[in-house]
């Protein structure tokens, strides 16, 4: 009797009947296109890419499989899951946090609230480390402000005989660091819970190379960043009043402390910061260079004895 009453109400309201039919007929591709429209109307930068990542996550499939089954019916449960993910993305939550994992140097890393998202530009730092360390059979590397561990773990995978120390201060990021070491199945990365401003943080370790992607945003500029970037931990962004707090300690602790041992240092920086950092580092090294990324922006500063 109740079912009959519901059906009667639907028949008296054609628009509801149409919506019900549309929902029943919706294909996976229709659902995908709906997500694109929602993201596009909310000014998400790359709605097609984000919508595809989220539909694949909802179905637990890869891109090849998506194109094979996109004409199939979208089950109601999948519709709910997908549209919930689209809603989160529409509201500014980073795509990487929603997915829970992100690729870096062809490796996967857990990411989420409390840890900086790995970015393609940072792969340049690993490539430079690879070229520098290639002649060293068992290098010692220290990665300061390690976060997810993407730099340390990628270097360790390239050099299985290396000893890589990943230093991270904050609890949430340190948790991701340890999970990512396990995820990538390596035993030559050593997670160190500590603060870069503590000069005893790595004890008596003498590194061949120090790498770091430290916080470098000027404190007062953080509030002007996009909503999406401000979803990332402020502790991974805030470089102090002028953006150079971490570079000063890296110069004083890293280059000055280990200059007699020939330790090199490669750091990532903001697009206008390279020249200042070069001048800062040049006090303690024989050769210092500012390198540019694929967008023609200052990205890496290298320092050698």
Task: Please tell me about this protein's structure.
With 305 residues, the chain is of the alpha/beta class. The protein has twelve helices and nine strands. The protein has helices spanning 2-11, 14-25, 28-41, 47-59, 63-69, 76-90, 95-99, 123-133, 150-158, 171-183, 245-258, 274-281; strands at residues 101-104, 107-110, 140-144, 163-168, 189-193, 209-212, 264-268, 287-292, 298-304. The strands form two sheets. The chain has a seven-stranded mixed sheet, sandwiched between helices. A hairpin with a 5-residue loop joins strand 8 and strand 9. Helix 3 (28-41) runs parallel beside helix 6, helix 4 (47-59) packs antiparallel against helix 6 (76-90) and helix 8 runs parallel beside helix 9 (150-158). It is elongated and about 70 Å long. The N and C termini lie far apart (86 Å). The model has no long low-confidence stretch (mean pLDDT 91).
List keywords for this structure.
305 residues; seven-stranded mixed beta sheet; 9 strands
How would you concisely characterize the structure shown here?
By secondary structure, the protein is α/β, with parallel strands linked by helices. 43% of the residues lie in helices and 15% in strands.
In order across it, which strands form the biggest sheet? 5-4-3-6-7-9-8
**Secondary-structure class:** alpha/beta
Termini Cα gap = 86 Å
- pLDDT < 50 runs, ≥5 residues: none
- Chain-averaged pLDDT: 91
Please write the string of helix (H) and strand (E) elements: HHHHHHHEEHEHEHEEHEHEE
Helix content: 40-55%
Query: What is the gyration radius calculated from CA atoms?
Result: 24 Å
Beta-sheet strand percentage?
15-25%
Number of strands: 9
Described by strand count, sense and barrel closure, the largest sheet is: 7 strands, mixed
The tally of helices reads 12
> Given the C-alpha coordinates, what overall shape results?
elongated
